[in-house]
Amino acid sequence: MQNNKIYLLNTRPVRHTLVGEAADHNIVFDEISFIQTEAIINDEIKRKIYKLSKENITVDFTSMTAVETVHKYLPAKPSWKIYCIGNTTRKLVDDLFGKKSIWGTAKNAIELGEKIVKDNATKQVTFFCGDHRREELPGKLKGNNIKVDEIVIYKTIETPHIIKQHYDGILFYSPSAVKSFFLKNTLQNNTELFAIGSTTAKALKHFTQLPVIIAEMPGKENLVKLAIHHFSKSKIS
Questions:
Q1: Among 31, 58, 92, 199, which is 20 to 30 Å from 114 by CA?
Q2: Calpha distance 27→228 (Å, rounded)
């Protein structure tokens, strides 16, 4: 491309400092979101969150949206045992609920389920999730006789866009964003794909045979840094 620049598409907004770091390596990031989330909070759910805030329960969080939505409707900081996924979600739980509330973390839903199963004292889990939640976590728990109380508190809305520019690489953060992207787009063979985890990578395999580079550690910033490192090493002298 002109001026030897690398053009990447980020399907989720990231910190401006990361965009600046990419620019230092002659990498240009465009940001286009292919999904949006919307809270599903009615009076019944508000009452349930209030009631649960008074109880000593075990809670699962697998997204930042779930953490933020639940916290908004809590009357006070609860005494919950929290298991959470990822790097960014864990940091948010730490900020809003406190480090002592975190009993376990993992880089994906399957590993998180395995950690909960190993805690033999856990017989029931409250799972705050979205309407597109994956089956891995609740399936793992139910398969080990742990009751799962699922509370859907947000919905995911696909917002597909037609991409006219060619990108050297595209970064994906969820299966929902993958599906939304491919509703209106196809890929050229020289496009490199990056996925935040194995579940998102698996979703990509439904639409393309192109290889997918998967972040070793969860978190959108880690994926962006991986892409910057990859292209600064392989394409830019």
A1: 92
A2: 7
- Cα separations (Å) of 23 from 11, 32, 71, 183? 18, 18, 36, 30
Q: CB–CB of 126/57 below 8 Å?
A: yes
Q: Which amino acid is at 196?
A: I
Q: What angle do CA 14, 15, 17 make, to 5 degrees?
A: 135
Burial class of 150 by CB neighbour count within 10 A (0 to 12, 13 to 18, 19+): middle
**Could you tell me the pTM of the whole model?**
0.86
Residue with tokens 């969150």: 49
Instruction: For residue 107, list its beta bridge partners.
Output: none
Percent of the chain whose predicted confidence (pLDDT) is above 70 = 97
- Which residue is it, tokens 């620019």? 23
- Determine the longest span between alpha carbons in the chain, in angstroms: 60
179-229 residue pLDDT tens: 999 999 999 999 999 999 888 999 999 999 999 999 987 788 889 999 999
How far, in whole angstroms, is CA 237 from its chain's centroid?
33
Residue 83's closest CA among 114, 118, 59?
Answer: 59
In contact, 59 and 83? CB cutoff 8 Å: yes
* Strand partners of residue 27: 6
Q: How far apart are CA 63 and CA 96, in angstroms?
A: 14
Residue 24 token pair: 């230092």
